[in-house]
């Protein structure tokens, strides 16, 4: 049996984003984002209810401050006590997982969406995705970008404005473009 374009997308295979089923999901997500972002002044319980109806998983006490932007929503899992500040973007063509207690600064962008390096499939309009996994108790500074396929280990720190192009080890601190490990400074 042939896979649908949506099944290919979710599996991280090459797919055609113009497929009617995928376009219907995008349209439904746009309507949801209008509702979610309009709920900025609403009580936290109301915003949580909106997240629960749309995301794969929403942990207890997870907070996403509007405005927030994503491709689909149903591929996003956010853990207990995780926090995402204003103006974050998640391109969730496949799974994006954010661990318990992770703190994400404003304007952070997390990309699971990717494009072929070979120009021919790009000319044909094909795309694919690679899952992004962010561990527990991670701190991501404002304006950071996490590219497709990256795993960030538990307790890591990503400096503001960094572009994370490779996996980040648990407990590591990375910064820069591209993000590289930096020496820990004593706090005090």
Automatic annotation (TrEMBL):
<comment type="similarity">
    <text>Belongs to the transferase hexapeptide repeat family.</text>
</comment>
<dbReference type="InterPro" id="IPR024688">
    <property type="entry name" value="Mac_dom"/>
</dbReference>
<keyword id="KW-0808">Transferase</keyword>
<dbReference type="GO" id="GO:0016407">
    <property type="term" value="F:acetyltransferase activity"/>
</dbReference>
<keyword id="KW-0677">Repeat</keyword>
<feature type="domain" description="Maltose/galactoside acetyltransferase">
    <location>
        <begin position="6"/>
        <end position="60"/>
    </location>
</feature>
<protein>
    <recommendedName>
        <fullName>Nodulation protein L</fullName>
    </recommendedName>
</protein>
<dbReference type="InterPro" id="IPR011004">
    <property type="entry name" value="Trimer_LpxA-like_sf"/>
</dbReference>
<dbReference type="GO" id="GO:0005829">
    <property type="term" value="C:cytosol"/>
</dbReference>
<dbReference type="Pfam" id="PF00132">
    <property type="entry name" value="Hexapep"/>
</dbReference>
<dbReference type="Pfam" id="PF12464">
    <property type="entry name" value="Mac"/>
</dbReference>
<dbReference type="GO" id="GO:0008374">
    <property type="term" value="F:O-acyltransferase activity"/>
</dbReference>
<keyword id="KW-0536">Nodulation</keyword>
<comment type="function">
    <text>Acetyltransferase implicated in the O-acetylation of Nod factors.</text>
</comment>
<dbReference type="InterPro" id="IPR051159">
    <property type="entry name" value="Hexapeptide_acetyltransf"/>
</dbReference>
<dbReference type="InterPro" id="IPR001451">
    <property type="entry name" value="Hexapep"/>
</dbReference>
<dbReference type="InterPro" id="IPR018357">
    <property type="entry name" value="Hexapep_transf_CS"/>
</dbReference>
<keyword id="KW-0012">Acyltransferase</keyword>
